[in-house]
Amino acid sequence: MGRSGFRGAMRAAFSRDRVTGQVALGLVGLLLVTAVVYGVGIASAKYRLADVGAWLTAKSKGVLVHVNGPAAKVDGKAALLPQMRNHRIKVVQDGNTVLLVDLDTGVVSRIDPSQLKVTQSKALGGLNLQVLAEAGKAYTVDPVKGAVQQIDPVSLTPVGPSAVLSPPLEEAGVDVRGTLWVPVPQLGEVTPFRDGRLLPTTKVGKAGDRLSLVMAAGEPVVVNSTAANATVFGSSGVRLYVRLPSTVRAANAETLVPARTEGTVIPLLVQSTGALTLLDSGTGRHQGVALKLPKHRYQPPQILGPRIYVPDESLGQLHVYNTATGSSEKAIPVAGRNSSLEVFVKEGMLWAHDPGQPKAVVVDGNGAASAFGKYETKIPGGDKRQPLPSGGSGDGRTPPPGPSPDLPSSPPRPPGAPTPPTQLTTRFEGGAMRIGFKPSRGGTPTGYVIKDVPQGLTASPRSIPVNVGALEFSVAGGDCDKEYRFRVAVQYRDAQGRASELASDPSPPVRPCTAPLSPRNVKAEATAQGAKISWEPGAGTDDPSTRYQVSSETTSTLDIKGTSIVLSDVFTNGQYSFHVGSSNGAGGNEGTSINVTLTGPAQRYPIQHNGSGSTAYVRAKPDKESAQVFTYKDNGHTLTVLCQVKGANYTHPNNNPDFAGNLYNKVRTPKGDGYMIGYLAKTPNSAGSGWKTFLGLPLWRCE
């Protein structure tokens, strides 16, 4: 069941009180699996399945099959009792951990791949129970009750205490470190769970926002399609915040998001419009693609290599878009019309099938698709790869030829005119917005021009002739806080020889910037003006509108431009933590923190109030009773003052109140550092009783 199907089932389940526990417990007793490995036939043997493969369900037959991916052949199966047939079964695969989840009853079963039989089976929840396994950890999530629990992936018994979140819960995921992440849309939050306890939550939207969790290269990314943004997490928390194109927030349209991707690029599809966004969670950059898709029922897009695969359940096929060439490729038939497709990527291969139909397809990283039958009774001979099915109803019948009646219609065009440019793409790169397109067909085009360029922005080139390699315009300038949409028009001569043009639909939205990555080389230096914090922009951050957020234990967050700031409220020697983040109209980042020890720079002041024959003492501590370090006779000596500190009260022998106090200067002498009572140094505030208070900058406090 895909993510969109999960949401529909959740809405139905949460609107009624359905009890499944008794059914589940009954099924545990009935569950029986027999194993067959083709060419062996001995159920008690130890079996070795292909290292690169996947388990697929065949619910109408009550069968689970294992398929060798490179060979596109079934190499093992496990048959369930008839009572399990036609239930919605989800297969959870993590290395040698293979779990079957009955979504109708909440029964979870473990298959031992070496024996091809169920070794454990337990009722762990109810309708639409989620079971997740990754990095050797396994969890259950009850989306209706809000309960989360770690389980042993072998015995299926609880590990540690459970926890409860505010239901209903969205589809969860497990990161590369084995931590469970659960979106809680009722609160607009995502909550991690590990070792029996809930970890601190992160706000990723408003209460009721539509949240989708993606595990991209093992790291959690929360897509908020209500607010059109994405929050990217790393090992230490939020790493990046990205504003997505406003098309992601299309009204009355569900944005389809895959549950996981093997790389950092995440495809997002607005199924009602065909607006495709490719978000790179590693860099925060994204690209928009205007796909022209029929108004069908889709499952979340998947990415493998340079290709995006869009499961079309109405036609039972995969639409294919090649990001390397910027063009659509021939669709891949999977099953019949009105299918319930399950499509996922595992170990560098894409798998697609309808659990209720016999046909399935595996696609490799080069886009080569191979069909196979899930109900085969023996290893087929001949070539390893089987011909692709021709589509149809799933029983071998080919649908009538001709275009689908619900394909998007194009406005009528003049006779002899070419088609408008199609599949416009947008991205920001190299300091400019890039607008690509596919050329027109038919007619006699003479060139292409870009339209809707606002005043103050510069497009290059002014026009593109036909039959050139790169069909792309660049637009420089613009405001990072705004989105821009462009059209591309084909120029041609009409039947009367007049110059005419025909414009495309608007491009996907694009900003003239990308979300900045965390600042680099953050440094802190003690200066006479305070603590100077400096940094370099994050890699690839080239937007002049980027602002930086600087904070410390003593300083509230300051929002500035530039790559340095002096904090005048920091002038005490000691340890500090400084944090520098950055943001612009496209998003922001978690920033960079440093821990440093700062010691203020020394200042030079002459000795005063040490008349002829008088002695100024430097003590080991800020106390006149402590050991003597050094002495100065008379005035005229220049002191190296390191810092100021409060110490023991001092009273001058002449009882002059102007010479009584507890402020000391730490000074450097030929015999080492020591402390001298404050009035003896001619600091800017030393007149009268002014020396009794800290001078402040440029002189730092000692501690």
UniProtKB/TrEMBL annotation:
One GO biological process term: polysaccharide catabolic process
Domain Fibronectin type-III: residue ranges: 417-518
Superkingdom as given in the UniProt entry: Bacteria
Biased composition (Basic and acidic residues): 375-386
UniProt biased composition (Pro residues): 398-421
SMART domains the record matches: FN3
Region (Disordered), start-end ranges: 374-431, 499-554
Signal peptide: none
Alphabetized SUPFAM superfamilies for the sequence: Fibronectin type III, YVTN repeat-like/Quinoprotein amine dehydrogenase
GO molecular function, one term: hydrolase activity, acting on glycosyl bonds
InterPro entries for this protein: FN3_dom, FN3_sf, Ig-like_fold, Quino_amine_DH_bsu
Keywords: Carbohydrate metabolism, Glycosidase, Hydrolase, Polysaccharide degradation
Stated name of the protein: Fibronectin type III domain-containing protein
Organism, scientific name: Actinomadura rudentiformis
